[in-house]
Amino acid sequence: MPTSPEQPVQDVVSRLKAGLASHGITLPSLGVDALTLAASGGTFTHPLVELGRCNLDTAQRLVVALAVTREGDR
């Protein structure tokens, strides 16, 4: 099966969603940035990932998840 040009960014988005979910974090609007797609004419030369907005609870969960990950690197 041939890989489409957007496949690498879709893979990253999928892996990011799974990684966040493993920490109990959901960003509902996480996905490929639509403006990037429109500007690139579908060539996906410099795609951006849309992280979107989140509420305070989700932001706090991200802070904790990043702190735990950072401590694990030491």
Question: Helices, strands, pairings?
Answer:
Blueprint: H1 7-21, E1 31-32, H2 34-40, E2 49-50, H3 56-73
Antiparallel strand pairs: 1-2
Question: Can you describe this structure?
Answer:
With 74 residues, the chain is mostly helical. Strands 1-2 form a two-stranded antiparallel sheet. The N and C termini lie far apart (41 Å). It has helices at 7-21, 34-40, 56-73; strands at 31-32, 49-50.
Mean pLDDT: 82
For the biggest β-sheet, the strand order reads 1-2
Number of helices: 3
Measured between the Cα atoms of the first and last residue, the distance is: 41 Å
Our Rg estimate from Cα atoms comes to: 15 Å
Short description:
Helices cover 54% and strands 5% of the residues.
Attribute tags:
3 helices; two-stranded antiparallel sheet; mainly alpha; 74 residues; single chain
